[in-house]
Design a protein that fits this description.
Blueprint (H helix, E strand, L loop, with lengths): L3 H19 L3 H4 L3 H9 L7 H16 L8 H12 L6 H14 L6 H13 L3 H13 L8 H13 L3 H11 L6 H13 L4 H12 L7 H13 L3 H13 L10 H13 L3 H13 L7 H13 L3 H13 L7 H12 L1
Length: about 350
Amino acid sequence: MISDRQEVQQSQVELTNQQKERRLTLDEVMPSNAQFEAYRQNKSIGLPTKVQQDIIKVAFEEIIGSDDFQTTKSAQKKIHLLNVTVAGSNTADITALANLVFRTTTAGRGAPVARELYRIAMDNGDSDAAFSYANILCKGSGGTARNVAEGMKILSQLASKGHVYAQFSLASMLAREESGYKKAIELYELAGRGGISDAWTEIGRMYRGGIGVEQDNEMAFQYFKKGADAKNAQSIFMMGVYYSSGLATKDGKTNEEKAFKYFMSAASQGLPEAQYNVGYRYFRGIGTEQNYGLAVAYWKMAAAQGFRVAQMNLARMYNDGLGIEQNISLAKRYYKLAAN
């Protein structure tokens, strides 16, 4: 039961969100001419720049400027009229324009306008717009009021129709609560079959940790393998973890050479933990020949992405001149990075 105090607090939060929307200016939500042109050149949207600007202006004035902050019939009508003036234009152009506003404005400030453009496109049958609209509702992007229940309802409808991104997003939300574990795995399965390789990784993690299912490393390994076969960096990394720990085989024997190959493959995709592991194996000569120079190279890759253990190891190597020329200045730099 929600108390009166909770209702007041909720109202205050909603009011704060509305006030944030009121402080928006048209300049804040209007992409630059270069951004409009880039989208047109990439064929992401077919509308002329002037029409795009007019639609955003209508959305801003009619929606953000309205008292209830809801999509108004007049805004829908005006945007529809602007849209149909261009031969061959369709609802997908409104969705693409919402994407442009949402992705190019600073700190998500364009989210309120993008949200309503997504809503209009969704009401006209665009499932991708519905997915984006639902995500904004669930996250409260850019200071917009959150409505998780409504967002999840829309995602559920999309998921039931086979929208793989909705299946994955909904699964990720359900996996946060014990009551949603079973449904989350079902949705991850569907999303994985639909081509989202991250879904295989997530199921693998659930089996690895016994989350919603009985802990089963063999099942976890099989799902990580599915993800690895789909070139998913996290799954490839986990294959390395399983081979290096002996969990990949029934007899519990490790295979450091295979582990190294998997870590190297994941590192080539930019995964910092994999880059660290490759560096560590070069440093120790595990699964490959010892090579301090390559250890430093891979630890630098991981350090550049904020991986603190790599930063600390580099600091020690430069401080002690271990395998590389001593450099106290660089040692201090990496110690400072690791400490922040």
